[in-house]
């Protein structure tokens, strides 16, 4: 029976219940962006906020919590519209937590360029040249994105593209007058904006400008960086995860400086062979210098992911120096000589990339037997997988991976005696920001 207290519609429901209903319209609103349903869910939410004015105050903050990047033909124009909204509605700006931007290559019209220029002057910063976006290219192409960043104080996740000659214009100036204005930023995911014939590196100075504004950064995912000896690395006091992406090369000295700047680092993923191959592009430093910096972090590191070249030791002390990392829980490596005693007793996960040859099978069987007798009581899983760098040799799969089938059952049996899961993967597994947690 209907009563006077019966809700007449969704607008009369409690706020918490309305938000729960919104989660069904946009199932990913409380998760990290990247889910393909993000954009579709946001469209539903946006329509609901426009068609039902009484729900606007509840729904709009949910809509503005994430900007997954525009799929339109004018993504930079859409970003400028977002900046205008955030400037006009600081109440909505404080709800934005996730920001992703993909393609900055767009020639803006005069009205859009003037809007950006006026906003920069409003911030009290020097005006940019009128020709900053006349051809869609140039050093200042990220100005609209920088403008958005200045109005998102609660941003937690940022994904953006960089190239070797792109510079940031606003952030380096802002950190001089109001440092640390991105105090809530936890994850920075930088990817390389590649055009055919382009160089495979990004501007280190641009990355450092964001790092200066985000002192509480927890996770950092980077492509190859265009770094010189004169470049500095800002303190990474709270950084716990540092990932260098697939096929990434870097200067050993740059890696050393980054490790020295991150005293709390727990997870490091680096393509060691790519770093060595990149010597022609980087200034100075030796691989052993970088390995020494890794060893200095052994008290904080919990997980180390390396892709090692078959003919190279990680450090002058040899590969079994890896056993020094007593607190490390996970070990990922590519090795041509596997020592069953190289891991600390605390090891929980072992991933070995691209182990080929008869001696590797014998080494793995020896490892399985020492696991079976309880040498590694905390070990949970052992994985054999193709090298993540195999795509550089145009391998879609592990060419010799099938050779492991003849010993797979024996390995599963031996590892299984201690409840350890053994897995043989056929395809490469790539590091990305999705693995930062």
From TrEMBL:
UniProt-listed InterPro entries: LRR_dom_sf
Superkingdom, natural source: Eukaryota
This protein's name: F-box domain-containing protein
Organism: Chaetomidium leptoderma
């Amino acid at each position: 029976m209907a009563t006077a207290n019966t809700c007449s519609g969704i607008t009369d429901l409690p706020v918490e219940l309305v938000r729960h209903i919104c989660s069904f319209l946009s199932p990913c609103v409380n998760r990290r962006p990247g889910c393909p349903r993000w954009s579709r869910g946001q469209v539903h939410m946006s329509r609901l906020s426009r068609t039902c004015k009484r729900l606007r105050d509840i729904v709009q903050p949910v809509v503005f919590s994430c900007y997954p990047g525009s799929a339109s033909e004018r993504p930079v124009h859409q970003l400028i519209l977002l900046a205008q909204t955030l400037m006009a509605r600081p109440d909505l700006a404080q709800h934005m937590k996730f920001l992703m931007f993909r393609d900055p290559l767009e020639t803006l019209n005069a009205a859009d360029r003037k809007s950006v220029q006026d906003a920069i002057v409003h911030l009290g910063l020097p005006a940019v040249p009128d020709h900053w976006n006349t051809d869609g290219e140039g050093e200042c192409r990220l100005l609209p994105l920088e403008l958005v960043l200045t109005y998102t104080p609660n941003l937690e996740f940022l994904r953006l593209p960089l190239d070797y000659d792109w510079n940031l214009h606003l952030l380096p100036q802002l950190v001089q007058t109001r440092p640390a204005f991105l105090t809530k930023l936890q994850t920075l995911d930088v990817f390389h904006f590649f055009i055919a014939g382009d160089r495979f590196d990004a501007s280190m100075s641009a990355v450092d400008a964001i790092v200066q504004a985000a002192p509480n950064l927890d996770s950092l995912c980077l492509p190859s960086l265009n770094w010189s000896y004169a470049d500095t690395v800002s303190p990474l006091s709270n950084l716990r995860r540092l990932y260098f992406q697939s096929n990434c090369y870097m200067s050993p000295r740059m890696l050393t400086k980054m490790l020295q700047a991150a005293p709390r680092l727990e997870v490091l993923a680096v393509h060691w062979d790519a770093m060595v191959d990149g010597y022609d592009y980087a200034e100075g430093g030796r691989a052993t210098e970088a390995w020494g910096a890794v060893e200095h972090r052994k008290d904080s590191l919990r997980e180390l992911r390396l892709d090692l070249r078959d003919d190279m030791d990680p450090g002058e002390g040899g590969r079994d120096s890896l056993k020094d990392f007593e607190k490390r829980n996970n070990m990922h490596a590519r090795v041509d000589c596997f020592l069953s005693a190289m891991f600390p007793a605390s090891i929980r996960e072992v991933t070995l990339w691209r182990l080929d040859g008869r001696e590797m099978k014998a080494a793995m069987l020896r490892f399985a037997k020492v696991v079976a007798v309880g040498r590694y009581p905390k070990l949970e899983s052992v994985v054999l997988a193709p090298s993540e760098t195999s795509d550089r040799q145009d391998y879609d799969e592990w060419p010799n991976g099938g050779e492991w089938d003849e010993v797979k059952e024996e390995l599963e049996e031996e590892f299984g005696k201690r409840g350890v899961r053994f897995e043989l993967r056929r395809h490469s597994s790539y590091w990305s920001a999705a693995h930062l947690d």
